[in-house]
UniProtKB/TrEMBL annotation:
Gene3D superfamilies: Luciferase-like domain. Residues 21-320 form the Luciferase-like domain. This is Alkanesulfonate monooxygenase. GO terms for molecular function: alkanesulfonate monooxygenase activity.
Amino acid sequence: MQPLKIHWCAPRGAGNTKASEKDLASELDLDGLVDFAQEAEDMQIDTLLMGIGFHLPEPLPLIGALVRETRRLSFMLAYRPGLLPPTLFAQAVNTISWMSDKRISLNIVAGISPEEQAYYGDYLQHDERYRRTAEYLSVLHRFWRGEAPLTHGGDYYRFTGAKLGLPFKDGGRPRIYLSGASDLAQQIAIEWGDCWLRYGDTPSGIAQASQAVLRAGRSVGVRMHVLARDTRDEALAELEAMMTNSDEEHRKNVQAFVKTCDSEAVRKSFELAESASNDWLSPMLWTGAVAYRGGPALCVVGSYDEVARYLLEYKRAGVSEFILSGWPTRGEMRRFCHHVLPLIRKLEAEEGRQEEVALVV
């Protein structure tokens, strides 16, 4: 089996925000972000996810800056159909492929909130946004197959004789991650994507939800958090300290925003958190920060060994990629890469040897 791919979610700056703190800033710490990206590269993180949202800096120019400050690290561009027409978007992605030597992948997000979409002049509802996403991806695939001139007349986009002088480098295309928890999101991931990306759940919950995707030969990725320490008691003490003096006004703001969301992924993540017993969905999955950080904040908590073994349970359930974060995310990335990731690789090697012996027998 292939080793787990470990990606990390990029912070706004140096990555020192706690789980319960307000995370809406009116400035960008580019120097801090460059330093974070370079450290992630040194620690063998595969990819940094560059998120999108009204509360975040625009990811396209950030990636353009970061690829010139790194040499191996890849960048996952989160983007929403409807913001840029597919011709211009393909042109931007192709340009970054040459700037970065193809260190670019895409996380296509249909959108999570009609209110936020309206900030950008987009008034489509949930299912319509996903149908537009399918059309968007179909056009992008045609560009990356080298069709030119390209004429398209669909429900959401229309253009005639489109040509792009600069192709994706070496005639390829970016790896495509499709986010969403609805059946429609899964169908589009199967038809047009490489990896279905979703928020966390228990390994058994992920396995059950992922059956159709895996049968279709697509990958499954999970976006969640980790908190690992030498011992479980230290990890639990860190949780308690982290949530002290939490920003309750921020929690109320998050709740108000969630009420405007029509995203199945957001809805299901909050339902999971509400179903948890004393903030624990399982002995390893803590939900206490979901109210402050939303769906991605479901967190695997434990000792280094416990966290490594639990992430391997997800691999057995069909997960091949993780996009992780922590609080503060820079310190957690260091701990994870120094202490948890080597254990994961050791366990993967042991399981690989056992599989080889079983095949021989």
